[in-house]
Design goal:
Chain lengths: ~500, ~190
């Protein structure tokens, strides 16, 4: 009963005008960043991170949740109207949405995308509220060796989910782990890798790494484009949409069927729980399953609302699933939840098995924000702003990227009131730029940085309680379970996967 | 996403042999960094003491794994270069579009170098001359860089620079109460 009243209290917290304002503001910012090609909701949350020093933790989490949800659905706007997915998770939507746009049904495609996002996002948030306390109870059973194996499992799955570039994923992850070892040792008071610099004794803060990896590197990548606007104004004239066309016909919704919506939401939620999977994989798996089980698979790729519904329902449902491992185990599976973890850490909070019960009043508004964003803000934003979406996202690049630069750099200054953090952000930005150019997944760098210290700490603690004998990882049932789970994932994702020519695949 | 643009061949003459690009040099530079890291880790002391892991164990293990992965990546790059016919232009991942592929220095495009130099200058100026002047000049120069030079629509760029500087001040100093350095507080 306490849990239910706590969760309901989260909805009541949204009635606070300031919290509500941040939720709506976050949703609009997330919609903009998700819709503009080249920008992502991860970048929006990264830019929000420095501001959380001055914000109440509940308000910051509410804003993060609404940005996450908005960013996941708004990529469909440009994916449908001009065939350029605003976010990677909308690539499957572009396959069906753009053919509909060419038939003059673009607004209806956006309506289907919004409906799918609304259903998927709401179900994902509900499942999060129901499942997270259960997952927290299970998390209490995991002891130190098991925690090490769980984090190792998460890191390995993150690496092997980098299709065609497992080696690059491994390099990026290990580099993140290496950066995390700079500073005071996790077990004993010994400074490591400071190279005689006192500024490095406290270690590398998460903020410059996030700002550098996601904001500064984006500036460097975008610096060579010759376009004056983010979206070509010529395309806007060709893609006019009307408000009344947004509502999808009931006959088409019936044809898609409640089961397809439910199945897509379940797939998205399950994929969200997996480390490193993210919205793109959720949309892809759900789309593929929808096509497999469809009565008319031949219509896919030619503008079928079923495909849009499946993809959008799954990628928004993923938002709920992604929070489960972060809140219950302290293990973020994707960059957004890693940044949300950063928000919690900045405020002196450490997620774990008892976090859900002890701090429910702080995180319940975040759950409520996810739910309300999906159920109310997605359709409301589409209806009110839909006809103007393309004009809004077609912004002058000089103004946009200059503004991002100032928020990113001055935001880095906020943490310690020192330009050293700003300089670190620039260094990590240049590093991430080179990694991105060579297709190294920078998400792995961030997750390696976040999970590395826990991996080392639990490894050393587990060994010290067993006199340095590594057999503890195989004799402890919880640890053995995660080792077996790692083996299962490795088998299905690496050994049984189709061969390709990318780096890190099976030798021929 | 911008980082996922399709690759086009760079503008090398077709008669040239394919050269080693970022595919090799990025892991090579990372290998150098890792070697320095590994040496520092070894200097921390022995990895095991009395049957327990010490502060150097985990970094040494990470560095060794990293070096193995980097060697694999470099070998892959060398094999890719060896397989590419001499007459075929290189398809370096550095080349993101026709414009940026034409001129690169140390793997950085001119635009990227511009942003790095301007940002480094901004960081120096931020402490020395304060938020207002440093930010105004930085934003103005960035607007020129992203907006195709100073001559084109310069009044708009000036207005944008003033507006962004003021908006940044309002956001950080007024709304979030962050004390920003100013010329008169130096």
């Amino acid at each position: 009963m306490d849990a239910i009243s706590g969760l309901l209290g989260g909805f009541a917290a949204l009635a606070n005008p300031e919290t509500l304002l941040y939720m709506i503001g976050g949703f609009l910012v997330g919609t903009f960043f998700g819709a503009v090609p080249g920008l992502t909701s991860v970048l929006a949350i990264a830019l929000l991170l420095p501001l959380t020093y001055s914000l109440d933790v509940t308000t910051a989490l509410v804003a993060c949740a609404s940005i996450f949800m908005a960013g996941m659905c708004s990529g469909s706007i440009t994916a449908t109207t001009i065939n350029i997915p605003g976010a990677p998770s909308s690539m499957m939507t572009a396959l069906e949405g753009y053919p509909m746009q060419q038939r003059g049904e673009g607004a209806k495609a956006l309506g289907h995308a919004a409906l799918g996002s609304m259903i998927g996002g709401s179900l994902g948030a509900l499942l999060l509220m129901v499942m997270a306390p259960l997952a927290a109870d299970v998390a209490l059973l995991i002891r130190t060796p098991g925690k090490f194996s769980l984090i190792a499992f998460a890191l390995i799955v993150i690496i092997i989910s980098q299709r065609g570039s497992i080696t690059k994923g491994m390099i990026a992850t290990l580099f993140g782990v290496m950066i995390a070892t700079i500073g005071i040792d996790v077990v004993q008071p010994l400074a490591r890798f400071t190279f005689g610099t006192s500024a490095l004794v406290q270690g590398i803060d998460m903020m410059p790494l996030i700002i550098g990896t996601f904001a500064i590197s984006e500036l460097l990548v975008q610096a060579d484009s010759r376009n004056s606007r983010t979206v070509d104004p010529g395309m806007i004239k060709a893609a006019k949409v009307r408000r009344r066309d947004f509502i999808p016909p009931l006959s088409e919704v019936r044809e898609i069927g409640a089961l397809r919506y439910l199945k897509s939401a379940a797939i998205g939620y399950a994929v969200g729980i997996l480390p490193g999977a993210g919205g793109s994989m959720a949309a892809f798996v759900s789309y593929a399953e929808s096509m497999r089980s469809s009565k008319h698979p031949e219509r896919y790729g030619k503008g079928n609302p079923e495909g849009i519904a499946a993809a959008e329902c799954a990628n928004n449902s993923m938002c709920g699933g992604a929070f489960v491992p972060m809140l219950t185990f302290g293990i973020p599976g994707d960059p957004t939840t890693a940044i949300v973890l950063g928000v919690l850490v900045i405020n002196g909070l450490q997620p774990g098995p008892q976090f859900m019960t002890q701090q429910l009043d702080l995180i319940a508004p975040m759950f409520a924000s996810l739910f309300v964003s999906a159920l109310i803000l997605i359709p409301l934003t589409l209806y009110l702003l839909g006809p103007y979406f393309l004009k809004i996202v077609s912004i002058r690049r000089d103004v946009l990227y200059s503004s991002i630069a100032i928020v990113a750099l001055v935001g880095s200054y906020v943490a310690t009131y020192s330009t050293f953090q700003m300089a670190l952000a620039l260094v990590f930005g240049v590093l991430a730029y080179f990694l991105r150019k060579q297709k190294y997944p920078t998400v792995c760098l961030l997750l390696g940085f976040v999970l590395g210290p826990s991996l080392e700490e639990y490894c050393r603690r587990a060994l010290s309680i067993n006199d340095g004998n590594p057999m503890i990882f195989f004799t402890s049932p919880d640890s053995l379970f995660f080792i077996a789970l790692t083996a299962v994932f490795f088998y299905f994702m690496v050994i049984r996967k189709p061969r390709d020519n990318g780096l890190g695949t099976r030798p021929a | 996403m911008s980082s996922e643009r399709s690759f086009k061949p760079s503008s090398h003459p077709s008669s040239r042999r394919p050269t080693l690009g970022g595919e090799f040099f990025v892991p090579a530079v990372l290998a150098l960094i890792t070697l320095v890291y590994l040496i520092s880790a070894i200097q921390l002391g022995p990895p095991m003491k009395a049957g327990n892991m010490t502060a150097s164990f985990f970094p040494i293990a990470t560095a060794i794994l990293m070096l193995v992965a980097l060697i694999c990546a470099m070998v892959h790059a060398l094999r890719g270069k060896a397989k590419a016919p001499a007459t075929e232009p290189t398809t370096d991942a550095d080349s993101t579009d026709g414009e940026s592929a034409s001129r690169q220095y140390l793997g950085l495009t001119l635009g990227a170098i511009g942003v790095i130099v301007l940002t480094a200058g901004y960081l120096l100026a931020f402490d020395l001359i304060g938020y207002f002047v440093a930010t105004f000049v930085y934003v103005l120069l960035l607007c020129c860089l992203f907006g195709g030079g100073f001559r084109d629509k310069w009044p708009t760029k000036l207005i944008a620079a003033v507006a962004i500087t003021l908006a940044g001040y309002l956001l950080f100093e007024v709304v979030f109460q962050v004390r920003l350095p100013t010329l008169w507080s130096q």
